[in-house]
Design goal:
Chemotaxis protein chec, seven-stranded antiparallel beta sheet, five-stranded parallel beta sheet, Rossmann fold, 7 helices, Stage 0 sporulation protein A homolog, alpha/beta, CheX-like_dom, 2 domains, CheC-like_sf, 16 strands
Length: about 290
Amino acid sequence: MKETKVVIVDDSPFSIAIIRDILLDKGFNVVGEATSLEETIDVVTKAKPDVVTMDMTMPGTDGLECTRAIHNIDSNVKVIIVSSMMDDEIVRKARKNNVSGYLQKPVDGEDLTLLINRIMASEELYKELEGLYYSVFKEAFSDNFNRMLKVVPEFQDEDTLDVELTSRGISVVMGVIGKYSGRMIFDMSYDTAEKICTSMLRREPKELQEVLNVMGEFTNIVAGNACSIINRKNKLFGLRVAPPTIFHGESINISKAELDTTTSTIANTIFGEVYMNVGFQRGAGEWMSNI
């Protein structure tokens, strides 16, 4: 990755010094500083930074006005808000003004470094994810299926076509958040889900809701394990799973994902078929300070 040039915008000399020391210690090239809108316009025009760290409150202006001025000069410059203030309204306005990230003061050096690196990695990082996500999710499925059910599933050939399908009866959807967003779907018949549930519980399930709960938790475990493996390969991904959403009934369609990359397969098991589909998309993922 090329050396990242950074400009610091803040009306506090103390804050500028803290952020400058963090950035220099982490190997970034600090090419300028500014304490006002006029200085920001001047330094961004001359220094041509890749990233600008931006305070929200400054005399006579604010971070969002400065951000708009920066993007009028060069729309490719990434702006990260570094402010003592953070609430839903400010975050909403920041997103609307094409801010690339948001950190709350006091700044943690690791958080700032990780956020800048994620923002700058872009296509190179996405290509890395594209090349490994399917094998990792499949491995997590196989390992956990074997660990919990003492059975190794056999997978059919993978398919990269993104088409609309009709559910077998129960679909569990796991959202994935982080540098890139995505989702994983497990789909199976009621009969297959009930047999899996019975084997896991070592008894008959009491009701359908118990079957759904078991399948939701199993899907959560698989997706969570897969995300952990991917994060260990490269911490910039920062992937995490959202709580499962479960759909069931007759004639339910599994809609096209509208993702940049998607891969599916069918796992043949002694309990029946389990359809797995995993996909991710480019673009801005999670960018808040809790990275």
